[in-house]
Amino acid sequence: MRVRFFNPTRIVYGPGSLSQLPDQLPAGTPAEQILLISDAGLRRAGITQRAQELLPGAEVFEEVEPNPRHTTVDRAGGLARDLGARLVVGLGGGSVLDAAKAVALLASNPGSIEDYEGRERYTVPPLPVLAVPTTCGTGSEVTWVAVITHTGRRFKMSIKGPAMFPVAALVDPDLLASLPPALVASTGMDALVHAIEAYTVKPATFITDAFAVQAVRMSFLFLKRAWADIRNDHEARDGVMKSSLLAGLSFGNSDVGAVHCLSESVGALLDTPHGVANAVFLPFVMEFNLPAASGRYAELARAVGLEGGTPESLARRLIREIRELAGAIGIPEFQHLGIPEERFREIADKSFANNSNPSNVREASAEDYLGILERAQSESL
Ligand SMILES: [Fe+2]
Questions:
Q1: Taking CA 189 as the corner, what is the angle to CA 8 and CA 194, rounded to the nearest 5 degrees?
Q2: In angstroms, what is the span from residue 3 Cα to ligand 1's centroid?
Q3: Are 359 and 208 a contacting pair, CB within 8 Å?
Q4: Among 145, 138, 157, 150, which residue's Cα sits nearest to residue 69?
Q5: Of all helices (H) and strands (E), which one includes residue 145?
Q6: How far is 228 from 336, CA to CA, in rounded Å?
Q7: Which of 194, 192, 249 is nearest to 218 (CA)?
Q8: For residues 219 and 238, what is the distance between their CA atoms, to the nearest angstrom?
Q9: Strands 87-92 and 129-133, how do they pair?
Q10: Counting runs of H as helices and runs of E as strands, what totals does the chain give?
Q11: Which end of the chain is more exposed for a tag (fewer CB within 10 A), N or C?
């Protein structure tokens, strides 16, 4: 089998690396032609101001919401065109980074972002993007995809292409210091889901496996500690940031699977936070996947120090450990997501239609997704 791995993003990793932002600009980029994309939370945390000090004169758009909407991206795209922008800086979590990539596409191509759903639908390469993650779960700083919610269709569109990789990722674990515990939990679980899915989906390779195993190990080692005290525990926030980055490098060249198919469907319909939905669905999807993936799950179980038994019993222990971890860091039960039962069919159909569904290790029909939802509901009643 021929294996390919492609990632053109320059990565600068380390505490304080935000200060490298000016050094990463392509030579001769005028400040007034830089568009900085962020959100209100980053302004409250004082992080946007720090970036502005490093990029004096840059235009700022900070209206990106969680589960970013195509209408928001279109608005920011219009701003980028009016500005004659030459560079987009994304400073934020996954929603902001995905929006930044999509805005960079619209800056050099006409129309609405909905015209570009799918792979390489642009005709002119998007503007260069510098990505600065501020959560421990996106991985978007090193991937080629932007996931944008179409509000009319209530569907998460994937917009991707080789020219959409950020040119550089500045990954600074110190930016996590003010992240609230609930966001450490949800984004940290998102990174764990990225790694577990990247390791088990059909496109996984020995290269993506190496990143995924290390990401899973680091999540198990550090996520609970980071949740407890990310402000003071430097080692833990370094660990969860590395886990997130490695998981991104993994799924960017592998894929995600049924957990993301479900969480993206739920997120588009009900605006459920992405990481929370992922964390809730992970054990149920792993249980569903067992007939096809117990050997792979057992390998991950051994990587986090679990021993003995058959592959299936090890895989089940891993699932139990994940539930224990999620519970310990305050991830809610399925029932608290507030998903009305009458929407299950629609969620199952959208999950089946998700373009990562064919990658899932076990073939999953719309009926199977319905079964996973019903199982999750029956267990949490
Ligand atoms: Fe994700």
A1: 35
A2: 24
A3: no
A4: 150
A5: strand 145-150
A6: 22
A7: 192
A8: 11
A9: parallel
A10: 12, 9
A11: N
29 CA from centroid of ligand 1 (Å): 32
Ligand 1 centre distance from Cα of residue 187 (Å): 8
Distance 138 CA to ligand 1 centre (A): 6
The residue count of the chain comes to: 381
Domain boundaries, the chain: 10-176, 181-380
Nearest-angstrom CA–CA distance, 127 and 337: 37
Name the CATH code of domain 10-176 (choices 3.40.50.1970, 3.10.450.50, 3.90.1300.10, 3.20.20.70): 3.40.50.1970
CA 245 / ligand 1 centre spacing (Å): 12
State in words which class domain 181-380 has: mainly alpha
Q: Could you tell me the distance, in angstroms and rounded to a whole number, from the CA of residue 288 to the centre of ligand 1?
A: 19
Contact 38, 68 (CB under 8 A): no
Q: What's the Rg (C-alpha) of the chain?
A: 20
How many angstroms does the Cα of residue 50 sit away from the middle of ligand 1? 27
Instruction: Give strand pairing partners of 55.
Output: none
Distance 189 CA to ligand 1 centre (A): 9
The alpha carbon of 146 and the centre of ligand 1 are apart by a number of angstroms equal to 11
Blockwise average pLDDT, block size 10, the chain, 381 residues? 94 97 91 96 96 96 95 98 97 97 98 97 97 96 96 91 97 97 97 98 98 98 98 98 98 97 93 94 98 98 95 97 97 94 96 96 98 92 53
For ligand 1, the distance from its centroid to the CA atom of residue 32, given in whole angstroms, is 33
30: CA distance to ligand 1 center in Å? Answer: 34
